[in-house]
Write a structure and sequence with these properties.
Layout: H1 3-18, E1 24-29, E2 32-37, E3 40-46, E4 49-53, H2 56-65, E5 69-71, E6 83-87, H3 98-109
Antiparallel strand pairs: 1-2, 2-3, 3-4, 4-6, 5-6
Length: about 120
């Protein structure tokens, strides 16, 4: 089996798992196969693994508690602390990570805090 066939089969297995999640869709972004919910990316295939977005504290905990979790760095470019990559030799084994993919979807769908927008909005009188 050549590398292109292996990548295609791997993507098909990951598609079968992730696209059955409610609201999930797939598309290419910057040459990578990515997965979205509510037009927000929650996972992405990169190299030998799948990156997923989780709260920074959860991502850090997983990085240190699972030996197959590394920082997500597609194309060698470091990403934020919210992104990790789970490496699995057999794509079918991502079934074991389904709770994490569900957590990722919940995280990206959650409303973001407004931040400090109001700080500069006050007027001097």
């Amino acid at each position: 089996m050549n590398t292109d066939t292996t990548k295609s089969s791997r993507k098909e297995q990951i598609d079968a798992l992730l696209l059955k999640l409610p609201g999930a869709s797939a598309r290419k972004i910057n040459g990578l196969d990515a997965y979205f919910v509510s037009d927000k990316m929650f996972a992405c295939i990169s190299g030998d693994g799948v990156g997923l977005r989780l709260p920074a504290a959860t991502a850090t905990e997983l990085h240190f508690s699972m030996d197959n979790v590394v920082p997500f760095a597609p194309g060698g470019t470091a990403s934020t602390r919210e992104w990790i990559q789970i490496n699995r030799a057999d794509a079918a084994d991502y079934e074991k990570d389904l709770p994490l993919f569900r957590d990722s979807i919940a995280f990206v769908k959650a409303p973001r805090p407004a931040g400090l927008k109001s700080k500069g909005a006050s007027r001097k009188e």
